[in-house]
Inverse folding.
């Protein structure tokens, strides 16, 4: 049996189907870290974290901000069911900057009533949105 030469990628949210195309590579933000998928990948089901999803066809790369959900990986198909998925061009950068600033302010000025986890998640989502909107992938921690 020969390996498939491409992957059919489908990305859907509760509101819409964002991607339905044939690609050469997919990199997902798994809940336990980044997961790269090439044609012929071993089947698996994984939960998604918050991060960047990249897919490539030839030399053209596209990026989406993703938060939570599931991905089913088969040798010739990747199906992503995401709670949140946004293309770079659909991200309101100013809104993301304000969300980042609010989250940072909540974390810096936290009180006993501050939901730390919620503020950290809001900050993480805002940073990913900003980076994707600028056409820059996530940075490695320094």
């Amino acid at each position: 049996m020969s390996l498939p030469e491409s992957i059919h990628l489908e990305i859907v949210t509760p509101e819409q189907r964002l991607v339905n195309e044939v690609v050469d590579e997919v990199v997902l933000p798994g809940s336990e870290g980044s997961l790269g998928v090439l044609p012929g990948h071993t089947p698996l089901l994984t939960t998604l974290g918050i991060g960047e999803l990249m897919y490539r066809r030839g030399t053209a790369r596209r990026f989406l901000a993703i938060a939570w959900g599931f991905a089913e990986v088969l040798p010739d198909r990747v199906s992503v069911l995401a709670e949140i998925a946004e293309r770079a061009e659909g991200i309101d950068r100013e809104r993301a900057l304000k969300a980042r600033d609010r989250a940072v302010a909540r974390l810096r000025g936290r009180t006993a009533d501050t939901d730390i986890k919620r503020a950290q998640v809001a900050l993480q989502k805002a940073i990913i949105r900003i980076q994707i909107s600028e056409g820059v992938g996530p940075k490695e921690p320094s």
User: Anything to note?
Assistant: The longest helix spans residues 116-133. The helical segments are 93-108, 116-133. Residues 103 and 119 are 5 Å apart (CA to CA). Residues 92-133 form a domain with the Single alpha-helices involved in coiled-coils or other helix-helix interfaces fold (CATH 1.20.5.440).
